[in-house]
Amino acid sequence: SLDSLNKQLDQIKGLEKENEKQKKQINDLNAENGKQLSQINSLKDENNKQMEQIKNLEKENEGHINEMNVLREEIKQHLNQIDNFKDENKKQAQEIKDLKEENEKQKKSLDSLNKQFDQLKGLEKENEKQKKQINDLNAENGKQLNQINSLKDENYKQAKQMDDLKEEKKEQNKQ
C-alpha cells in the first residue's frame, strides 16, 4: 500500500541522513587520525634526538669521570699540603705566643710611660692655672700701680697747694 511505501521512503531518508552524519564523522576521524599520525612522527623524531643526546651525555659523563679521578688525585696532594701547612702553623703559633709575651712586657712599659705622661699633663694644667693667676695678679697689680700713681699725683698737688698756702702766709706775716 502507498502508506507503507511512504513510511519506507521516510525510513530510507532517515537512514540516508544518518549515513551522511556517519560519513562526516568518519571523515573527521580520518582527519584527526592524520593529525595524530603526524604528532606520532614528530614524537618519534623527538625521541630519536633525545636518544642521540643521551649517547652524547654518556660520552660526556665518561669524560667527567676521568676529570673526577684527576681531581681526586689533586685533592690528595692538597691534603698533604694542608698537613704541611698545619705543621708550619704550629711553629707560627709558638712564635705568636712569644711575640704576645713580648708585647705584654712592652704594654706594661707603655702604661708606665702613659701614667708619667698623664702626670705631666696634670702639671701642665696646674702650670696653666698658675700662669693665669699670675696674669690676673699682674693685671690687679697694674690697676693698683695706676691707683698709687693717681694718689701720688693727688698727693703732689696737695703738697704744692700746702706750699703755696705757706708762702701766702709768709707773705701775709711780712705785711
UniProtKB/TrEMBL annotation:
Signal peptide positions (record): none
Bias-annotated ranges (Basic and acidic residues): 13-26, 84-110, 121-134, 151-175
Region (Disordered) residue spans: 1-47, 82-175
Bias (Polar residues): 27-42, 135-150
Origin superkingdom: Eukaryota
UniProt name for this protein: Viral A-type inclusion protein
Species classification: Eukaryota, Sar, Rhizaria, Retaria, Foraminifera
